[in-house]
Predict the structure of Sodium:proton exchanger.
Amino acid sequence: MSAAANRKVLATMAPAAGLVGVAAALHFAQAGPIVNFIASALALASVAHVIGEATDQLGNHLSPAATGIVQSAVGNLPELFVCIFALRAGLLTVVQASLIGSILSNALLVLGLAFVAGGWRVGVLHFESQTPRMIATLLLLAVSALVLPTLAQELHLPSGAHEQELAVVCAVVLLFVFVVLTHAMLSRGQRALPAETHARVHAWSLGAAIGVLAACGGAAAFVSDWFVDALGPAIEILGVSEAFSGLVIVAIAGNAVENVVGVRLAAQGKADLAVSVILNSALQVAVALIPILVLVSFAMGGAAPFTLAIPPILAAAMFLSVLVVTVVTVDGRADMVDGAALVGLYVIIAAIFWWG
């Protein structure tokens, strides 16, 4: 690996390593819930960014399809660890809200900002509509897996008394769809994110990319534990609801920050790539991360396992958001007005959950 590539690796790792070190020092020094919460949130976001960069660099050494599978497997590691530790701590509302918040932050906030940035720079953005249509279809399936169990419980249907069994069925169905999607990617030689999104200048060696991923996986586990440990007390001190902290704070810290690349691509006029990057991230959470956590929660046991019967307002917010995204992207064009509408809807949803 060249000296320039070595410098690139160090430059990518250094900020994250520094933030993780600060978070560790504050955690073990018991600096206080608010300070620990802020430090661990920043460290978590930085680790997520480095994981995204390292998986991108694997594309220099693996086939496109293999790279896409790796991205699907490790791209959501920080959020997966946060949700597991939160489930262990009994913060079920935070887990539900953070998963839905990850989908909403990408599909509304990040995509909206991308359309605003792209519209500001190049005017009307034009993109191929087949991929957004496919992603919207799968997102609607995921929404159905959340809305229907919720309705069954709220309407007191016989199946509502079997929410755990119904959650397992829905999780297995979503994972089956994810497997079919992965198989289609392999058979067609495609990947989750287009190859053009990744800069090939100063490519990392395969060993460096794997080493960085391994280090980030371990860091994500520790930082997630510290983050959740400070989350409960910080919520009480700040006076925000568990739903808002999960929907906005946890979701952005663990997932959306790494996808600012989509905004940059849109600003460069690469609308096809921007839409694919952003919506694929939301899709992975919907059809992979959510069902995995359902199954993991049952394996962990506990008094309140994670099921798909969520508060009705969360289900409604999810359904309306996916519907709006479908309407905005189905014609293959978008501008600043579309972006402002998506960001506006995200702000409205966040405001609703500010009070609980």
About this structure: The domain at 3-354 is CATH 1.20.1420.30 (A middle domain of Talin 1).
